[in-house]
Amino acid sequence: MSQNEIVVGVDIGTTSTKTAAFDENGNIFAQSSCEYPLYSDIPTRAEQNTEEIYQAVVQTLSEVVKTVTTNSGHVVAISFSSAMHSLIALDKNGSPITRSITWADQRASSEADELKHTVTGQGIYRRTGTPIHPMSPLVKLMWFKENDTNTYQKATKWIGIKEYIFYRFFGEFIVDYSIASATGLFNLETLSWDNKALSLAGIETSQLSEPVATTHIIKGLNKDIAKQIGIPEDLPFCVGASDGVLANLGVGALAPGSVACSIGTSGAVRTVVNEPTTDPKGRLFCYALTEKQWVVGGPINNGGVAFRWVRDQIFPDLQEQSGDPYDALTAMAKEIHPGADGLLFLPYLTGERAPLWNADTKGVFFGLTLNHDRRHMIRAVMEGVMFQMHAVVSALQEIGVDPHEFRVTGGFTKSPLWRQIMADIFEKDILVPASPQGSCLGAALLAMKALGMINDFSTVEKKVEIGDIHHPKEEAVNIYQELKPIFLNLAEKLTPDFKALSLIQKNITT
User: Which residues form the Carbohydrate kinase FGGY N-terminal domain (predicted)?
Assistant: First the structure.
């Protein structure tokens, strides 16, 4: 591949679409992003407008392609990353009759609770690798079947947001193995839709997209869209994979014991294995990267969203000051000792996924005294997110993963303090790749492999430049070792109270 041949990666995220162009060495040639809102008309709902996301994809692609061509680059392929677990109902004309229902939507909590502890639910988890939780499209379909029969009966297709984009672009319904394996409807062993899961949801295979490999190439872009973006109709598009597994690829976390951690709005901990692997306790997911590589790990609901809550609800006065509010928050947190002088925060502001998988959990400050002030609360929130991330690491260790390094991406990497807190809680070195666009790069690398530009992913680790490394500090490590078991015990002990409080809150808001 010559110097100016460029591969573009598009990452359709929860709060924005990011598009980046890369050369053969993984260097960013151009990038663009476009934000869009998350709609929550009812407290349990978390939806997005499909047209807003479609326009964001077209806009960012157009901007990146224009920058590439202006600078004598040549786009040779486009590949896609996407958030998992979205669900859209289409009518017989292929038009959406729902918004895109995101992973954060909790309308199907009761369906998940009922299924989770049954033999049927446990069997579905073992075969599909998707934990039984309201995020799961399977459980969302069960909700529609029981609670919105009008939509359920009108829907001729049930698809995710990336499938919708490809349908608009090419007029075909295809889904990569990676996104499919996050639906709760896809059998990891057979790489096909799971008949028992489909029966439970009450749908037919014909109502779903055709599963294809993550390196699947499609051509024949709609001519009007091709003209709008500024690319030829026969440009190769790679279907790509989910943002989670592609973040591992994009940061070079492919070797045994190399773990990728990302914290954006939410967070996740993931590592690559060579065969489908599930957790006997049902705490971890298992999703496809390729036909021969799988990613096992766990997501947390509350990452950057918890820090944003601190900014907006505890420190609204910072909005009136000049400078970045997050820099001010971090500076105040830095004034407080590790452990926040014994103040803990359970960061369950939007329920929790791994390793608890309990949508009823709530945020909790534990240990408040007269000596604590707002600075302690900031520090406790930052530490609470990391304690929760480490709980996922502990679950991975229980199933045989032996982490030796952690490679990190996401918005939290902008904060040296937060990265150091991670090193001290994880008790391992934290490696920060120089490029922040892990999922975009991962998508681009899939396209490079699909088109024969690279033979395999063995050289990816060398392509990923490490910008910074944080080493654990003994004094902080000793403090966190005392606090970690208290943190883990709290969530378990409060489980029945979380449930009772959820019922009260539900009654208040309805």
Answer: 7-250
Residue with tokens 């939410």: 266
How far apart are alpha carbons 507 and 98 in whole angstroms? Answer: 26
Q: Using CA atoms, how far apart are residues 329 and 434, in angstroms rounded to an integer?
A: 24
CATH of the domain at 406: 3.30.420.40
Within-domain flag for 378: yes
Each residue of 399-446: pLDDT tens digit? 999 999 999 988 899 999 999 999 999 999 999 998 777 899 999 999
Over 80: is that where the pLDDT of 190 sits?
yes
350 lies in which domain range?
Answer: 304-432+472-509
For the chain, the domain total comes to 1
Dihedral sign (CA 60, 66, 72, 73): positive
Contact between 178 and 245 (Cβ < 8 Å): yes
User: Among 136, 148, 228, 140, which residue's Cα sits nearest to residue 186?
Assistant: 136
Shortest CA distance to 97 belongs to which of 37, 42, 149, 36? 149
Cα 417 to Cα 382: distance, rounded to the nearest angstrom: 9
Encode burial over 12-43: b for 16+ CB neighbours within 10 A, e otherwise.
bbbbbbbbbbbbbebebbbbbbbebebeeeee
Nearest alpha-carbon partner for 454 in 465, 466, 442: 442
Kindly tell me if the per-residue pLDDT of 3 is higher than 60. no
Determine, yes or no, domain membership for 481: yes
In a domain, 408, yes or no: yes
C-alpha angle 492-495-497 in degrees, rounded to nearest 5: 135
Q: Distance between CA 373 and CA 369 in Å, rounded?
A: 9
* Residue 153 maps to a domain: no
Mean pLDDT over each residue of the chain, to the nearest integer: 95
